[in-house]
Design a protein that fits this description.
The chain is α+β, with helices and mostly antiparallel strands. The chain has one helix at 2-29, and strands at 33-35, 39-46, 51-59, 67-72, 77-80, 91-98, 104-114, 120-130. The longest helix is centred in the first third of the chain and has 28 residues, at 2-29.
Length: 147
């Protein structure tokens, strides 16, 4: 019984060591997405006023970075991202546009999927939408008088 347990333990140890070595070798050659910040707080914004924030990142890896998809946690947030690969050492950005329609505090996530290590990165935007006051409400659009 002790021999069987020792054999299984040895195999598990060898498997973990091999898996760890492969992970280290793979990550040293992959793209790496390094953001200057991964959370942005808009603070208080008036209802009905779309706002946006640009998340800047750098490819600090050794391979070109390819973003496969960027998805927002709800339809009120629209992401824009580069479709071309980002070269090693290159910088790019992901823009998050938030439609401030619903009043109250919000926290929304934007999930970035790429060939980087790790292959998913979650960005966060947050803030609070308040009702527009008379000074922040947009002026009504005036139509030209007919001739």
């Amino acid at each position: 019984m002790k021999k069987i347990f020792a054999g299984i333990s040895f195999l598990l140890l060898m498997g973990l060591t091999t898996a760890h070595a492969q992970t280290q070798n793979t990550s040293s050659t992959q793209a790496v997405m390094t953001f200057t910040a991964d959370t942005y707080d808009f603070g208080t914004i008036p209802q009905g006023t779309p706002v946006n924030h640009v998340f800047t990142f750098k490819n600090t890896g050794k391979e070109p970075l390819v973003i496969t998809s960027v998805t927002a946690s709800c339809g009120c947030t629209t992401p824009e991202w580069p479709k071309e690969p980002v070269k090693p050492g290159g910088t790019a950005s992901i823009k998050a546009i938030y439609n401030a329609a619903a009043m109250g505090p919000f926290t929304k996530t934007i999930t970035v999927v790429s060939n980087a290590n790790p292959n998913q990165k979650v960005l966060v935007i947050k803030g609070e939408v308040k009702a527009q006051t008379a000074t922040t409400a947009a002026a009504p659009v005036q139509q030209a008088a007919p001739n």
